[in-house]
Amino acid sequence: MKKLVYLDNAATTPLLTEVLDEMMPYFKDSFANPMTYMQSSLGLDAFKALEKARNNAASLINAKPDNIVFTGSGTESDNMAIKGVAFKKGKGHIITSKFEHHAVLHTVQALQRHGFSFTFVDIDKSGFVDINQIEDAIRDDTILISIMHANNEIGTIQPIEEISRLAHKNGILFHTDAVQSCAHIDVDVEKIECDFLSISAHKFNGPKGVGFLYIKDKGSIYPLIDGGAQEWGLRAATHNMPGIVGLGKACEIAQNNLGFQKEKLINLRDYFLNTLLQNIDGINVNGSIHNRLPQNLNIRLDGINNDALLLGMNRYGIIAAGGSACTATDTVPSHVLIALGLTPEEASSSVRFSFGIENTQEEIEYALDIIISLVKKLRLLRG
Amino acid sequence: MEIYSEKLMDCFLEPRGFGDLEDYQCSFEITSQEDGINVVFFAKVDDNLVNISYKVGGCSVIIAVCCAIFDLYNKKPLNIAKSANIDEISSYLDGVPSEKQRCATYALRAFLETINRCA
What we know:
Radius of gyration of chain B: 13 Å
Helix content of chain A: 40-55%
Oligomer: heterodimer
Shape of chain B: globular
């Protein structure tokens, strides 16, 4: 079998075997609907599994289980928080940043069709939002501030505790998308004092198609999906039991391993970067290397088109992500890198490496040898 | 179905004919900052046969197309080189993804401009 070195863990992570083992019974034998728990022992077993997963999810972010609402994804969690607040309030103004995930950016933009207005604040050259700019953007009718905990492309960790305090000082609700940060660094809703926090299981070795939204006050939003009474009527639909059980197990494993994982990922990342710097000229880190997720490294390589490097790496089983994407009519640079102040050309020479708990030192050595060789070869072609 | 053919991957990973061309008679360079590409062809004509080389920075497809141009038209009569077209190159590479036609065209344009300057 072809060797695989997966360095795109910010896109998604592999499912842990322990997580899959926990999920398996809920695909077939333990198929009951947990909402039938009052009359069915099979339903009660499912309900207990549901609540165990809820407890694990709550514990990971230092929340109470009653504040956890299961959803179908991080994107749904973002939509639920932002649209839920907007529809409850009926009108108003929302503040977010230019380098949010599209799950936030496009959701806020979509609300414009319903009469809401918004302000997108800038980020600085190091990849951090400017709190003063957020403060300046606050209006009498501002209903929500949504700033991500850590950026998905450059990994910079935002000062969300300060932003949350600023929001509350002005009577504004605060949401944070913690999809990239949760299970990789400490995420504590009591410290952040956020009103909403979005999570997705597949970003920390759980299954795809399941996430949750932390909601401090369930009366502060309207549901996004109406129907049955599941999740306190805030998210109707029969529970995705295999997914939720898998999410719960992934939360439990992440909580047990958080400190160890963090140290391991920082060591791998820093070794990777330092070896590249020692062997190749013209490398710059996009965004600050400080206050950054341990698993994230985003670099630009002078004179290298990321498509060529990534496709060359793929030939050797090494997977990472680029800072731009080709379409038939143009090359679309990452909105995050453009917000950071990079030119389209710099974005097209940028590559994101995101490490995972299953990466080994041997894999990193192998990847480094190939990448260094490919970069030299591509630069030779350029002359 | 693979997005990139084996032939295209071979030309991309093991490109032939790149580098300087001694005593070249003409050259043409195209740069696009938006697409992050830079391609320059060099050519000279001896006894009606073209000698070519190129330097290229850019995506996998532009590199593969430069290599294909070298394979197809180096040491060929001038009129054959002047007739270079995207269909012939695409066919040689067993196809070019539609998203990458633009990059392929950059290389072809640079080559044809170079050849026309020699003619």
